[in-house]
Predict the structure.
Amino acid sequence: MFEPKEPQKKLKYEELRIYTDEELNNYTEEELKEFKCKHPIPDVEDLEKGPWPSFVADAKREALHRRKLPDDRLLIGKYVVEDTLGQLQLSFDHGETHWKHGGIVGVFGYGGGVIGRYSDVPEKFPDIAHFHTLRVNQPASKFYDTEYLRTLCDLWEFRGSGMFNFHGSTGDIIFLGTTTEQLEPVFYELTHVLQQDLGGSGSNLRTPSCCVGKARCEWSCIDTQDMCYELTHYYQDELHRPAFPYKFKFKFDGCPNCCVASIARADMSFIGTWKDDIRIDQEAVQAYINGEIPPNGGAFKGRDWGKFDIYKEVINLCPTKCMWMEDGKLMIDNKECTRCMHCINVMPQALRPGKDTGVSILFGAKAPILEGAQMSVLTIPFMKCEPPYDNIKEIVEKTWDWWMEEGKNRERLGELIQRYGLPKFLEVLELPPMPQIVKEPRSNPYIFWKEEDVPGGWQRDIKDYRSRHKR
Amino acid sequence: MEEIKKAILEFAEKTGKTKFYFKDMEKAVHKVMPDVKARMIKKAATELINEGKLIYFSTGSTTMYGLKGRGQTEDH
Ligand code: HEM
Ligand code: HEM
Ligand code: SF4
Ligand code: SF4
């Protein structure tokens, strides 16, 4: 059973709200059509064209809304949004950014969570002279209620730009733009009133994030929310006080469908899996074959794909070709199955992951900065995964100790592993190579002979050898 | 602990740079005290931050440390 680490209170928007309903709904759609940004922004407005929703359209709504709020209802500049758009236009004109890079702002005791940003043309855009970003640790799986969201919105309207990202690609909520004076008050409100912490930024553990997991998904092999919450709390020091060579990300996926894309985005990717056999309900398999249950949960119902064909849509697409039909029954050679989830995704009522569940741990994904983009590499095929996750913490700490020792400044874990090779990394983790981690010989060569593994070492009697082998 | 803090401050004052990486600080401490664990150096640095002697500098992606009062100020 999940136990929160501190008593949870229920937030009531009515008690925390800053703005009245009239203030929140203070413009008409007519006024929005007439709205002209304080600065001419032709190229920025161009981004509103096309089929996709545009941040420019959203920003204009916010700009109009702020214009119509009384001055004393805003603690930072009224034109912060318009100045942001204006400076973006100027950057388009010049082909250069006008944000200065970095700064020493933060909240007391934290080395991450606040990113200092300053305009380098403050005389043109005074309301964004300071435009600091805050990273806010999102709740597990990004579950909110509207009372909470409204409270956040009021807080940020009052003390910041009113602009957010829900969510940054790391997963956290991003509060875009405020002044240095507002950082501590925002931090106080978040932590003392809203029970929400800042997330990570800089050379530290970044805000961990997880898929919806067992809360909503029957495929989840591990309790991603619990694990994310536990490790977030356990590694508070690493999250808030940066001393790593560079950033480090944890992500938790409940199954290999990888909804938070941990495999592509985390230095340490946790992916739920199972060790026993896929559970098969043969009657439901027949129902799929007979067209009684729509495949893929009905996701492709509108398409003209004809009658469901179990060979075309499942068996022939199995990447390891470990499925077949025998006497009208679906068979799986489970020891060949790579747990790709394809068959389960197509026939969720007939097939389910096994019951002996745990986690696969992969290391080293990153976006291109020093080296090119990289996916995480499967290193621990299966590990039990239960609170308080001591076995997992042990692996985490061995990894950090090595990376902090050997990693160069701004070198991600994946690059360090590449530099030293996978066998070295296994030694660090004190794990033997396992067949599941070898994709094919030579593309990820974990296994090298060492002198102590070879009888007689590297020395040999050359005369004895030559007596049998001519030159 | 106090000794580590002293070594850090000496390094911070001596280095010509306004900001430096954790690793630079770690190397400097290791010159004086080779056996100190990185974790301890981090603890000492955190204390110096809390005492207002060191500051963090962050670009958003990378964090560095600096001596309070040298180089950039908060308004910039
Ligand atoms: C509507 C406008 C913007 C959008 C949609 C946007 C979106 C994003 C996203 C998705 C990320 C990645 C976050 C993550 O990895 O979790 C990010 C990072 C960041 N953004 Fe923005 N952003 C916007 C405006 C700005 C502005 C105006 C600034 C600076 C004044 C800014 C500064 C940053 C910084 C410093 C980072 C972190 C970069 C790093 O990790 O190296 N953003 N932004
Ligand atoms: C049934 C017999 C054989 C099979 C199935 C076989 C298979 C292979 C395979 C799969 C590789 C690639 C290995 C890798 O990429 O790691 C390879 C490489 C090689 N094989 Fe064979 N081989 C056979 C016989 C031989 C024989 C008899 C010789 C020499 C007379 C030979 C010489 C080589 C060489 C020089 C390489 C390249 C080694 C390297 O890249 O370091 N092979 N072989
Ligand atoms: S990763 Fe798997 S368990 Fe998590 S939400 Fe996606 S399908 Fe469900
Ligand atoms: S999960 Fe993937 S590999 Fe395993 S049987 Fe199904 S389709 Fe094949």
User: Anything to note?
Assistant: DSSP finds 18 helices and 13 strands in chain A. The pocket of iron/sulfur cluster (ligand 3) is lined by residues A 211-213, 217, 219-220, 253-255, 257-259 (CB under 6 Å). Residues 390-406 of chain A form the longest helix (17 residues). Chain A touches chain B through 34 residues (CB under 8 Å).
